[in-house]
Each structure stands twice: as structure tokens, then as C-alpha cells.
Amino acid sequence: MTNNESGMTNSESVYDVDIDSLQGGSADLGQYKGKAVLVVNVASRCGLTPQYAGLERLHERYAAQGFTVLGVPCNQFMGQEPGTSEEIAEFCSATYGVTFPMTEKVEVNGEGRHALYERLVPTEDAEGHSGDIRWNFEKFLLGRDGSVVARFSPQTEPESAEVVAAVEKAVA
């Protein structure tokens, strides 16, 4: 096995990454094998926070076809996710009715970048951007095999034509 630029071996996938759930304990990414997953770094105090509503609708619309959204709180962008796990969970549930799973708060850029994002950031979006996450609500679509099949900028709405088309292709 050889190491890629992220330091992970080529045989490792997102399913092998250890990350805790927002409520504590393992988020067990292996449970998503065979599903399409939209991984999104989220924040509660951002101008893009209303995207939670679209993410929830997308989650509900395609859940029966083997799809889920996975929210990953991050406080690296102007401190827009300062809350505790309990505060984040309460905000998401009470304000946006979020039912999709959420992980613990992590770093998505820099030396402390979580292993999940080490695996995701080499993927380019439609404009050719790869590498560091630019802002809250950057989105990565994983195919049923765990490979990254699409990356979307933070400004791309969850229910935009390009996201919906990619999700429909991933669950087909």
C-alpha cells in the first residue's frame, strides 16, 4: 500500500475514518456503506445557516433511496459554530427540524484537519477548486462505494439543480 498526499493509504476509505457523533460515541461511518452521503461542514451562526432547511428536505426526499446528509460542525470560519454539542443539536433540531446525523465538531483545514477531510479535500469542484475548505457549508457527495463523486461550493444551495442531479445519479 502506498500513501497518498493526505497520508492515508490508498485502500483506506471514508468508512475507515474514526469520528464521533455529536451526541458522543462513534459516528461509525461504516454504517453508510452502500448509501450515498452528502458530507457538509455546518455552522449555526453563518449567513449560509438557512441551508440547513434545504439539507433536511434533501435528506428526507432521498432517504428511502439510500441517501443521507451528514453534518460536520466546524468553528474555523470566524467562530460561527461556537456552541457545545448540546447547543448545536438543540439549535439544529428546534430551528430547522434537522433529523440527519451530525458528527462531533472538527477542524476541516490546517494542521488539525480531521482525517475525514484529509480524504475529501483533494476532490475538485466544478470550478476546479480542490484543497482547503473555503467556508461553511461546502459539500461533498459520496457514492455508494464511499468514493467522492462531487464537490460543491458553500454557496451552492442543497436543492440546486446540480446537487439534486448528482444525488439522483448517486442513488440510481
UniProtKB/TrEMBL annotation:
Family: Belongs to the glutathione peroxidase family.
Keywords carried by this UniProt record: Oxidoreductase, Peroxidase
Active site: 46
Full protein name: Glutathione peroxidase
GO biological process, any: cellular response to oxidative stress
Pfam families linked to this entry: GSHPx
Annotated source species: Streptomyces scabichelini
Family matches, as InterPro entries: Glutathione_peroxidase (IPR000889), GPX_AS (IPR029759), Thioredoxin-like_sf (IPR036249)
